[in-house]
Write a sequence for this structure.
């Protein structure tokens, strides 16, 4: 079990004293409302893609148009999206840190719009795959930037909830795609799958419009020596325009001091990044979060639900689409609920309960699928369906609600883009392998393929118990030196205190000067 302590939580204590809810703060309320389409909407695109690829496999015109792709071709068609992500990831920190969070969201959205149009216009298998690679190339620019911007703009009290809602927003896009597929799958032309393909661009268009309405990250502005702009944003949204706010003074000083320390020790290359023990520890956590979020049994239920349903006797395309829509809606409900309660529980507790529940569900899924395959028992089929619906609450408790919240907390500002990029790289690589291999495994060995997941999930639980630190109840700056030892934490606290004193001293001098001028 890992114990890690953060710096003195002075800002956190002030935040907890603020009992005014966000919806009674006009500026903060307006910011959060615009964040929904501009930032949370990034995950709508990702969810739309997964659900769409799941749904169009039930469309006869799609199957005929692409000559009934075999398990290998089908796997590659789905996995090509992740391949595009992998190709883009080396460039993501460069764009995100050099040009800002907002620019990176716009850049990724434009690429995805191009990919959606090409996918809709696909004339053959090669064009369809290339379009999906382009779609995948654009998504990490937007995901890394949007998740960072949410964490860096939000008021500290709501930050864990908003970063958790970012991941649960995936289900909004998935529900829309499932509904669109239900509405088009009986069409007897290729528009049955072209319409869902082109509609994938709609969330990206919304991001291009609304991203202009939100401010840039104060932390990014401070890192670029644009201090007055950063302070003005904090005053407007975290203090509702009160320039004398004690919270903003401390928050600004804490951010400024922490980023200054980070920049003094900033590693310029990926190779240099791994030279410190703290960063190596963070890299291992990024690897675990990337792989665990994709190899915990969710991939078969997201991409190949049709094959699982066929294994328990559900072969009617309409019924399959209804199950797909039902599971997606249920996942959205429980995923949103988990995001809203994330502040009430410790991070480690949620992760451990999550992985324990997933293990129990997969045991039930394996046993019931085996029983149905051997006996054709309807009761076994019902248990399988129940297991499918029981899976999402446990998965969403940890890997959905906490992934970006946890990433933003364990990676300090100067390497946050690199950290989320590493998690994305491992996650997309895991998805690429999973998406390609899963249909082959399900076709060749059926229910026995689930045994692999049961074994792997036990391994995940062991790793989570051993190395995942607790991060709840602290601001980002209080967590910035989580793995660097007490000296770094104390130095950060001392610098923050010094900046606060200097700021107060300047205010006193300005006040005395004003009084003398009035006299």
């Amino acid at each position: 079990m890992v114990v890690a302590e953060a710096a003195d939580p002075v800002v956190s204590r002030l935040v907890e004293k603020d009992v005014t809810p966000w919806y009674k703060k006009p500026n903060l309320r307006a910011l959060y409302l615009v964040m929904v389409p501009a930032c949370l909407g990034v995950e709508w695109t990702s969810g739309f893609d997964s659900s769409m690829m799941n749904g169009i496999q039930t469309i006869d015109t799609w199957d005929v148009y692409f000559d009934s792709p075999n398990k290998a071709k089908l796997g590659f068609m789905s996995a090509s999206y992740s391949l595009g992500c992998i190709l883009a990831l080396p460039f993501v920190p460069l764009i995100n840190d050099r040009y800002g969070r907002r620019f990176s969201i716009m850049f990724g959205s434009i690429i995805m719009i191009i990919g959606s149009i090409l996918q809709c216009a696909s004339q053959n298998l090669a064009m369809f795959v290339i379009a999906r690679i382009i779609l995948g190339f654009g998504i990490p620019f937007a995901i890394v930037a949007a998740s960072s911007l949410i964490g860096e703009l939000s008021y500290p009290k709501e930050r864990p909830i908003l970063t958790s809602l970012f991941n649960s927003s995936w289900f909004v896009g998935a529900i829309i795609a499932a509904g669109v597929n239900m509405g088009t799958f009986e069409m007897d032309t290729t528009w049955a799958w072209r319409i869902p393909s082109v509609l994938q661009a709609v969330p990206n268009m919304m991001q291009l419009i609304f991203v202009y309405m939100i401010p840039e990250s104060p932390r990014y502005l401070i890192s670029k020596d644009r201090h007055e702009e950063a302070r003005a944003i904090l005053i407007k949204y975290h203090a509702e325009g009160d320039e004398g706010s004690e919270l903003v003074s401390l928050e600004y000083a804490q951010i400024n001091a922490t980023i200054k320390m980070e920049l003094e020790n900033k590693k310029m290359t990926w190779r240099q990044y791994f030279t410190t023990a703290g960063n190596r520890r963070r890299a291992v956590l990024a690897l675990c979060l990337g792989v665990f979020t994709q190899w915990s049994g969710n991939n078969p239920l997201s991409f190949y639900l049709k094959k699982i349903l066929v294994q328990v006797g559900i072969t009617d395309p309409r019924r399959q689409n209804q199950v797909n829509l039902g599971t997606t809606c249920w996942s959205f409900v429980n995923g949103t609920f988990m995001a809203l309660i994330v502040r009430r529980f410790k991070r480690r507790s949620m992760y451990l309960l999550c992985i324990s529940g997933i293990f129990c569900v997969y045991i039930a899924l394996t046993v019931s699928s085996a029983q149905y395959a051997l006996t054709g028992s309807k009761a076994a089929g019902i248990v399988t369906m129940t297991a499918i619906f029981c899976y999402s609450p446990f998965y969403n408790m940890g890997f959905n609600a906490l992934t970006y919240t946890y990433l933003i907390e364990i990676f300090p500002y100067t390497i946050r883009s690199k950290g989320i990029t590493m998690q994305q790289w491992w996650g997309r690589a895991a998805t690429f392998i999973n998406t390609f291999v899963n249909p082959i495994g399900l076709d060749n060995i059926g229910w026995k393929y689930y045994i692999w997941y049961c074994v792997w999930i036990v391994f995940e639980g062991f790793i989570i118990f051993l190395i995942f630190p607790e991060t709840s109840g602290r601001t980002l700056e209080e967590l910035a030196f989580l793995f660097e030892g007490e000296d770094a934490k104390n130095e950060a606290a001392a610098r923050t205190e010094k900046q606060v004193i200097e700021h107060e001293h300047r205010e006193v001098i300005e006040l005395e000067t004003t009084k003398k001028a009035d006299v």
About this structure: DSSP finds 25 helices and no strands in the chain. The two ends are 65 Å apart (CA to CA). The first helix runs from residue 10 to 17. The chain has four domains: 18-214, 218-264, 272-484, 487-518.
